[in-house]
Design goal:
6-stranded antiparallel barrel; Elongation Factor Tu (Ef-tu), domain 3; about 425 residues; 4-stranded antiparallel sheet; alpha+beta; 22 strands; single chain; 3 domains
């Protein structure tokens, strides 16, 4: 059978065209139905000791600190700061750190000293007057007794004389006897009056002397001295909403300067009420300074608060204060510095663990995408304890396995991020 040359040529062209068309159709279909490429970021599943921790913010303070306050006394008006040591100065025990205006207390002291002097003068004059009056009344008593004795003699002489004369002498004797008794009574009464007057003046003297002594004691308190070595740190003046300053008017008992002892430092942080039951005294803590993130320190939980505090008025969630003793001493540690505290609440000696970002929830299962022959393969896993960054894998992965950090079945990066956020098993 002879086939025309033109017909054969058409057949050959069709045989070439069919494979080209097939290839063109296969490529996009393969792109749709084949697994995603491994362009997604990956990480290795780690194996080893796993720390279950709670991370909170904290603030450094001295373990021991003394706050110096204005005297808790009132002398007519508020006190005024007239001098302050420079904040941040290292002070020794006995150093003057602040002085308060003493005008009011000095005036009060001078007034009380004057009152004391007046009372002492009154006492001296009163004692002199009492001595003179007592001397006069003693003389009067003795004179009455003398007259009484003379009257007794007169009665003896007229015993054998006329009755009228005898009666007169006896009456005189009685009058003189009464005069003696009256002189004695007057002397005794005056002694009681003198004693009462002396006591009254002595009370005034005692009060004036007490006021003087107290004012002298209080006057010394208007100069604030360091009771121990430390670093001078100004306290807040709540009237001005800033730290205390020279010329500030302050009230009795107001905190002026604190002296933290920098030889031993602590960190305080607030733990959410959901996690506070996991935090125990004695647990180890890793500490990082916000200002020096390359520096690491270590500590131990010293105490856990028992009363919750509402730190945000817009939220009902309570937090509990945790105090951590810092093991190291370092000049870089200053009161008020902010830190990150990683409280180790549990230690798993041996575990396989991956970042939280690599674990997803799909169709009710917890999965990761393990790299198998350069392609991500959805792998069901069983998770265990976790911390703020990692989660342990009890089943489904081994140490060294590579897993993706996002879901590779998602086409667009923004969608992947959203899905991961929703799908990550926290």
């Amino acid at each position: 059978m002879n086939i025309p040359i033109t017909t054969l040529r058409r057949l050959r062209e069709k045989k070439i065209l069919f494979p080209i068309i097939g290839a063109a159709l296969f490529i996009p279909l393969a792109a749709v139905f084949s697994p995603k490429s491994t362009t997604a970021a990956t990480t290795d599943a780690r194996s080893g000791e796993f720390l279950v921790s709670i991370t909170v913010s904290g603030e450094i303070r001295a373990a021991k600190s003394v706050t110096l306050a204005s005297p808790g006394v009132w002398y007519g008006s508020d006190m005024q700061i007239v001098w302050l040591i420079a904040e941040g100065t290292s002070v020794k025990q006995g150093d003057v750190v602040a002085r308060l205006d003493t005008a009011n207390i000095v005036k009060f002291l001078n007034d009380q000293q004057s009152q004391l002097n007046i009372s002492l003068s009154d006492l001296a004059k009163l004692e002199a007057d009492h001595k003179a009056s007592t001397h006069t009344m003693e003389a009067e008593r003795k004179n009455a007794e003398f007259q009484f004795e003379l009257s007794k003699l007169s009665v003896e002489r007229v015993r054998f004389e006329a009755e009228v004369q005898r009666k007169e002498k006896e009456l005189q004797l009685k009058r003189d006897s009464i005069a003696v008794e009256q002189a004695k009574l007057k002397l005794e009464t005056q002694a009681e009056i003198n004693k009462s007057e002396i006591n009254k003046v002595n009370v005034q003297i005692q009060k004036a002397r007490s006021d003087v002594d107290k004012a002298k004691h209080d006057l010394r308190m208007f100069t604030l001295r360091a009771p121990m070595p430390g670093l001078a740190v100004y306290e807040m003046n709540w009237r001005t909403s800033r730290k205390v300053a020279i010329s500030d008017q302050i009230w009795p008992g107001m905190s002026v300067i604190s002296l933290p002892d920098l030889s031993r430092m602590q960190v305080t942080g607030n733990v959410n009420e959901v996690d506070v039951s996991k935090v125990k005294k004695g647990q180890k803590v890793n500490i990082k300074l916000d200002a020096f993130p390359e520096r690491s320190f270590h500590g131990v939980v010293a105490s856990v608060g028992t009363i919750g505090q509402q730190t945000d008025r817009t939220s009902s969630i309570k937090t509990f204060e945790v105090v951590v003793d810092i093991d190291e001493t370092d000049p870089v540690l200053k009161p008020g510095m902010t830190t990150s505290l990683e409280i180790i609440v549990e230690t798993v000696p041996q575990a396989v663990y991956v970042p939280l970002e690599s674990v997803f929830s799909k169709n009710g299962k917890t999965v990761v995408f393990r790299i198998d022959h350069s392609s991500p393969k959805e792998t069901e896993v069983e998770t265990g304890v976790r911390n703020s960054n990692f989660v342990t894998i009890l089943k489904g992965l081994a140490g060294g396995d590579k897993v993706t950090l996002r879901d590779p079945t998602l086409r667009e990066e923004p969608g992947a991020i959203e899905s991961e956020a929703k799908g990550t098993k926290l």
